[in-house]
Specification:
alpha/beta; Archaeosine Trna-guanine Transglycosylase, Chain: A, domain 4; Transcription Regulator spoIIAA; Rossmann fold; 7-stranded mixed β-sheet; 6-stranded mixed β-sheet; 29% strand
Amino acid sequence: MARNVPIDLAQFAQPPVKRLALRLTPAAERAVREGHPWIFAESITRQNQDGRSGDLAILFDRKNRFLAVGLYDPDSPLRVRVLHQGQAAAIDAAWWENSLRQAAALRHRLPASQTTGYRLVHGENDGFPGLVLDRYADTCVLKLYTTAWLPHLADVLAAVTAVIHPVRLVLRLSRAIAPPLAETGLTDGLVLSGSPLEGPVVFRENGLYFAADVAAGQKTGFFLDQRDNRARVEGLAAAADVLNVFAYTGGFSLYAARGGARRVTSLDISRPALQAAAGNFALNAGVTAVSAASHDLLAGDAFVEMERLAENGRQFDMVIIDPPAFAKKQSEVERALGAYARLVRLGLALLRPNGLLVMASCSSRVTADVFFPLVHQTAQEVERPLREIARTGHALDHPIRFPEAAYLKCLFAKAE
């Protein structure tokens, strides 16, 4: 259970970090020079001493010159996460603050679009490997994916306070690291600083209001990465009957309603998520188009409910399918492709002639070169060929600096 009382981080003070000297295979050395941020255990050829999670690993090339510095994690096959490469640099409080200022500068235009919910730090792509920082109005949510951040947490939080000035800071932990950190007192949903949480945090996205459960919701409380695709849906939804599959808390649904959709159906297996979607519609009841749209909630398994809708003869002008990551490891890719193909078939069966299919994937192991042809091939097989409107990827607050980081892809297409 999440703790809702700010804490004194001094109690989690760690022993001073050590600096380890590592050398790599030629292939890994080349990858680091090209900007890749991951060093796996098998790529390390020499290490001068044992290290603890969070120690700084100094990488040297074959001529004993500085190559990079990163966070060491002896318990992970991803042994080093690179923080900085090129010229030697001191990783200290000033370095963390400067890195955060650079990340914040990249997002400086977002508040002008009436947006107070966005990603401030996108992990490796912003120089903070294994760490995400999201902003929801005056609340910031810090999510950790490796225990290697623990010795540096106080410095990182000081940088967040200095650069962002949040009213509240909440900690989220990935499933992999929550158990080992539990004994330290750091738990998922813990309020690190600021006033206790009193329910969801309300923020704005392109002028619309949303409520995010930052302590226990999926990700850090909301899927911020789909902001631009939601806005695109709004521009295409006039007078449409829309089905939003895997709707979660109704992001795409609300944008479609503001775009003039006559009727929106939000389908999700989670009843609490659908209740939150209804709450988001209520937050925006003052928007004429939102209050005018009919909003139906449908709870159930997406595959089962889409089949049932088709059997009952339901048809839609727009079908949005934004499923969870089906392939979190390579062995799951084949099954994921089958699931995507099945969803395309189900979606097209519910789509009126010349209707709009919005098909997304957030599985990084299913690349764009595989995903988009799969959607088209499946449409051809059911004799509903697609005419593309757009292929989209990552928004500016989710920058991509290396190939494996490119996970989000979305197709907008009309079906004959």
